[in-house]
């Protein structure tokens, strides 16, 4: 396994090396999820029905409107709750 080193810039951003992007199929404007597991950051490409339908190339044509962003967020949250279930907190 090859180990890659990336620098965190002043905005907290890193560049994912091309070899890793190619391996994971990550392209410009794709979304990824980041989570910490046992003090290790895990990066996973995010796929959703919305992105599979419109494809990442649609994002380069024009910025999304607030309504489109809101609809996307609603759809992705609905899919998450459908997969994971809704937890309730008892008082």
What do these coordinates show?
This protein has 2 domains: 32 residues, no CATH class; 37 residues. A hairpin with a 2-residue loop joins strand 1 and strand 2. The protein is extended. The protein starts with 17 loop residues before the first helix and ends in a 7-residue tail after the last helix. It has 91 residues and is of the alpha+beta class. The chain contains 3 helices and 2 strands. The longest helix is centred in the last third of the chain and has 19 residues. Strands 1-2 form a two-stranded antiparallel ribbon.
Short description:
The chain is an alpha+beta fold and about 90 residues long. It has helices at about 20-25, 50-55, 65-85; strands at about 30-35, 40-45. Strands 1-2 form a two-stranded antiparallel ribbon.
How many β-strand stretches?
Answer: 2
Work out the radius of gyration. Answer: 16 Å
Structural class, judged by helices and strands? alpha+beta
Detail the poorly predicted runs: none
Instruction: Classify the helix fraction into a percent range.
Output: 25-40%
What share of the residues does DSSP label as strand, in percent? 5-15%
The average pLDDT score comes to 76
Order of helices and strands: HEEHH
């Amino acid at each position: 396994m090859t180990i890659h080193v990336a620098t965190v810039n002043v905005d907290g951003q890193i560049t994912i090396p091309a070899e890793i992007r190619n391996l994971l199929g990550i392209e410009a404007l794709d979304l990824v999820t980041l989570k910490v597991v046992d003090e290790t950051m895990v990066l996973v490409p995010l796929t959703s029905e919305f992105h599979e339908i419109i494809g990442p190339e649609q994002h380069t044509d024009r910025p999304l409107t607030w309504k489109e962003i809101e609809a996307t967020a609603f759809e992705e949250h609905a899919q998450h709750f459908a997969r994971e279930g809704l937890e309730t907190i008892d008082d």
